[in-house]
Amino acid sequence: MESKNQPLANPKDKRILIVDDDTNVLTFLEMAAQLEGFDVVTATNGTEAAEKVAQRPPDLIITDLMMPGQGGYEFIRALQGAGNASIPIIVVSGSHIEATTVAMIRQEANVVEFLRKPVPMNTLADSLHHVLHTAAPPKEQSPGINERPKPS
To answer: What digits encode the pLDDT tens for the residues 71-85?
Structure first.
């Protein structure tokens, strides 16, 4: 059981593998995780992702389900068979998936979250920090209208 007083880790010390065949989604998820301070690597299908896991296991995986070649569900099952069932996985999907199928996917040992595309950036950030027990970076606020320098 975790102590509630345990200090949060620094996101830069956590590696996230993002797997999606849609380059726009992949770029968005990569940018969102990097803005939160995480070390990010990417793959476009389950086979490429499995190779990256074998090279250096990440602290968390974000994967799409529907991809050419080895899809997300097959990738998740292969991870478990390869002894990597302890790597937490956040599944993201834009496909319409029945509630019973979502429930089945959530039953997988390492699936910790299921998010539907388009994933709001703040929802993704909250999930990443929660699962990895990291501290969110301080947010810079733009100056208010009265705090802006006057034009010369």
So the answer is: 888 899 888 888 888
115 DSSP β-pair partners: 92
Structure-block tokens of residue 11: 């996101």
Ranges of the chain whose pLDDT falls below 50:
1-3
- pTM of this structure: 0.85
Rounded Cα–Cα distance for residues 113 and 104 (Å): 12
CA dihedral 16, 19, 25, 27 (to 10 degrees): 50
Chain centroid, CA 21 distance in Å: 15
Predicted confidence (pLDDT) per residue in 136-146, tens digit: 988 766 555 55
Whose structure tokens read 């099952």?
Answer: 77
Q: Which of 26, 8, 7, 6 is nearest to 16 (CA)?
A: 26
At 142, the amino acid letter reads S
